[in-house]
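INFO batch 0412 | record 1 of 1 | parsing
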Amino acid sequence: MSAVVARLAESAERGVAPGDVAVAESAPILISSSSEVHGSVLSDTIVQRNCSLHVRGNLVGRLIIEPGASVVVDGSVDGRIINKGGRLQVLHNKGLAACVTVEGPPEAEANGVLKINLSNLAANYAQLSKQTEAECAAVVRADAYGCGIGPIAGALAKSDCNTFFVSSLAEAKSVRAVAPQATIYVLNGFYSGTGPAFAAINARPVINSAIELAEWDVFVGAQIWKGGCALNVDTGNSGLGLSFEEATAFAPRVQMLNHGVTLLLSRLNHAVAPHEAGNKRQLETFHELRRFYPGIPTSLADSSGIFLAPKTHFDLVRAGSALYGINPTPGAANPMLPVIELTARILQVRDLTVSNGAKNGSGGKRRRIALVSLGHADGYPRPAGDSRRPLQVAIGGKRCPVAAGPSTDLLPIDVSDLDRSVARVGAMVTLIGAGIGIDDLAAASGSTGREILSRLGRRFHRIYRAT
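INFO prediction complete | emitting tokens
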């Protein structure tokens, strides 16, 4: 591997975004063995006979492929291509390859490995966008549901997402760093003293109360700032947002020049239940509300609402948990691709006698228990107690039951039915992935997919990849 390729690979291992690496040399890069580059290559490149090169980025310079050589480029090739009898595959993934990076502790030191597939994330966004004629915004609140707001928002921005919803100003700053031209709405609203921070990054508060609106008006009037805001109206007794009466009382302001209201939004409380009577009532209330705000863009549907009916879409839909692979249509097949894979290693394997409950203490069943290197401190849930839906993991492609609830740092797995060569110290255990989806884990723990995802901790070695 050449020095240039080695430096590019080293930059990816350090967690440097490969898109930030700009390496160019007067001499071309010579590939004389099987090589992989996590980043874009700006120099001319020669792939020698019977060698292979995989570039997880863009190849900008001239490319020469000698007989029998193989080249895969996840991004694009912008220079001249001279193919002398090799093979070239260019995937054109809209720049996503430049997002490949790593975060957290090194893999050998981490409690587990969390892989986040940015290509599937982008495909999910494209799928959700195709379901509607409205603009499709991305909800990346709660650190992109625990997936990491910077890499997630960056990948979505490269996938033509132009509007984002975040929880806080801190998250808005993270999105602005990777999406300079995007519209950003802050769901937690506006409170006194935060005006300058909103203005500095051109973010828009989602106003949830009359007090917030009054505070916002004071700031806008004092600073003569023309940044917009959204009004969140509670149309279904959710307990969050302006009441219908408050919203209609504020409506005359939209007749004023530079009124500043850029979005009117609400949320369907029962979007996952298509025949729920409350959906019809909320839809009627929202239609009535829109008449008080003519010309203002409106939004009602979240991930599940996108699949509910086109009449709920209005001007903008808000894709949230479905982006990350969570099923937006419970009870039906999941239309989303999996985005998350979580693995951890076996630290110990012990043979234990499990009591059969005899009063004299005699008897018991001999079981083999593997202790896996993560626990509830890493967000892994406890079993729900429903034996019909046990918590399971996969080892060597085979399912194994979770033997008990996690401790702070360890998870016990019953590996009695596995060969000892498979369930051994150091072997990797799949907790999410290999047919064990986030929704499966949620159902077995009496939780929700959003809760499972958002609780995943920061002790994992994180790999963001585009494939």
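INFO post-check: The two ends are 22 Å apart (CA to CA).
INFO record closed
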